[in-house]
Design brief:
The complex is a heterodimer of chains A (about 230) and B (about 200). Chain A is of the alpha+beta class. Chain A is built from 7 helices and 5 strands, in the order αααβαββααββα. In chain B, α4 links the parallel β4 and β5. Chain B has a 5-stranded parallel beta sheet with strand order 2-1-3-4-5, sandwiched between helices. Chain B has 7 helices and 5 strands; from the N terminus they run βαβαβαβαβααα. The chains are: A alpha+beta (about 230), B alpha/beta (about 200). At the A-B interface, α1 and α6 of A face α1 of B.
């Protein structure tokens, strides 16, 4: 006989799993599936980091940043009991990246109201992490009055999300397909594969504007998976 | 180790980049990256890879259906990767002529031998299929030759060697293969057969 409040009496074995309702089992199975997928993603992030990092410290920092980005959606849901919005996610990615430095730009956010599904949240979080991290580390580090603008739009064409800095911009002759390092490669692959859209890099004179395009059909498809 | 030109089909960015890196580390070349089954079929026609490494869970057409379409158009060794050890997937994969089936997470130490074996088994399979086709063709030609010789022996009351010499002479005079000459004799005999005149 179980204790009041669900605890077990001395010597009592845990109750059978079958005591759970079919709905609870389905939800538990869904959670396990997500956990398994995320562990696989972490394994891949480690493998990719190992192949590209120039030192153990660089590897540790890169992997930590990406794993934190991957966890942000879950963190926000557990803190608020609500699905995260794009604005809240962007705010959190910014906070985690700015904390590490090296640049501390003036910030502006003009993002559309968009509630994120699980399938949208993870790739968007990683994409924002890579692009914002690149802007802070490579674009704005040497700039005296650094600025970072996050803006977006949502219409029948889909979602457009831009990160613009007033930093050094891309080196002359830079070809993303040929010259991108792991972070930008990952951002391009997330845009093309997970979000079935694209990433545009434009000279912002001065600085760089990186824009993610997610087509409306894909946005609708990815919005279907609920958090619980 | 053989360096293969690989078409990689994976819809998750991090997994795709990790597999691309593993393939490069194994000495293979990634000729293209597709994010769904339909794109995989299109890229197969375009880049003509030696092998296809493909996830099963893809948006739209899944990896097994894409493997079936690819193998209908131009057979290739296909190695599937999946998160699900499901018997139904395995059965469908077998029918789609998939050469290997790996469970995620896929390590390079497992991927390399699986790809190499899939490629060599596919090559050997194709060679055996070619040999079977040649043997079937040879057997068919032998049967035609034997029937034509038998016909000539009956009509002209000659022996087997004489019948063969006549066929050889005919083939030489008309610039035909021996089997073609034999087929011409059979066709002519059939046309001239009074039973077929009606």
């Amino acid at each position: 006989m179980g204790q009041p409040g669900g605890g077990l009496a001395d010597g009592e074995a845990p109750g059978p799993v079958a005591a759970l309702t079919p709905e609870s089992l389905k939800a538990a199975s869904g959670v396990c599936h997500r956990v398994k997928n995320d562990f696989q993603t972490i394994t891949n992030i480690l493998a990719l980091g190992s192949a590209h990092a120039r030192s153990p410290r660089e590897l540790a920092e890169a992997v930590e940043g990406r794993v934190v980005a991957l966890s942000l959606g879950y963190t926000l849901v557990s803190e608020t009991d609500q699905p995260p919005t794009l604005d809240r996610l962007a705010q959190e990615v910014l906070r985690r990246n700015l904390w590490k430095g090296p640049a501390h730009p003036r910030l502006a956010r003009r993002l559309p109201s968009l509630v994120l599904s699980l399938r949208l949240c993870s790739p968007l979080s990683l994409w924002l992490h890579e692009i914002i991290g690149n802007a802070l580390r490579h674009g704005l580090e040497q700039v005296s009055d650094p600025e970072l603008l996050l803006e977006g739009s949502l219409d029948d064409q889909g979602l457009r999300l831009s990160v613009t800095d007033n930093g050094a911009g891309l080196p002359p002759g830079f070809a993303p397909e040929r010259d991108a390092r792991l972070g930008l490669k990952l951002a391009m692959a997330l845009a093309a594969n997970d979000l079935r859209g694209g990433l545009d890099l434009e000279d912002a004179r001065p600085g760089l504007k990186a824009t993610l395009r997610v087509p409306s059909g894909e946005l609708a498809r990815l919005a279907q998976e609920l958090w619980w | 180790m053989v360096s293969l030109g690989v078409l990689l089909v994976e819809d998750e960015a991090v997994q795709a980049l990790a597999l691309e890196q593993a393939l490069k580390d194994l000495g293979h070349r990634v000729l293209g990256l597709a994010g769904d089954g339909r794109q995989a079929c299109e890229l197969c026609r375009k880049v003509r890879p030696d092998l296809v490494l493909m996830d099963i869970g893809l948006p739209g057409m899944d990896g097994i259906e894409a493997a079936r379409v690819i193998n209908l158009e131009r057979p290739l060794p296909v190695v599937l990767i999946t998160a699900h050890a499901d018997r139904r997937f395995l059965e469908r994969a077998r029918r789609a002529r998939v050469h290997s089936y790996l469970l995620k997470p896929v390590e390079a130490a497992v991927l390399g031998p699986a790809m190499e074996l899939a490629y060599h088994n596919f090559t050997r399979e194709r060679e055996l299929e070619r040999q079977v086709t040649d043997l079937r063709e040879g057997l068919r030609a032998h049967k035609v030759l034997a029937r034509a010789q038998g016909l000539l022996m009956d009509r002209h009351h000659i022996n087997e060697q004489q019948a063969q010499q006549r066929l050889q002479g005919m083939a030489q005079a008309q610039g035909l293969e021996l089997a073609q000459a034999a087929q011409a004799v059979l066709t002519a005999a059939e046309l001239l057969d009074p039973k077929r005149q009606r």
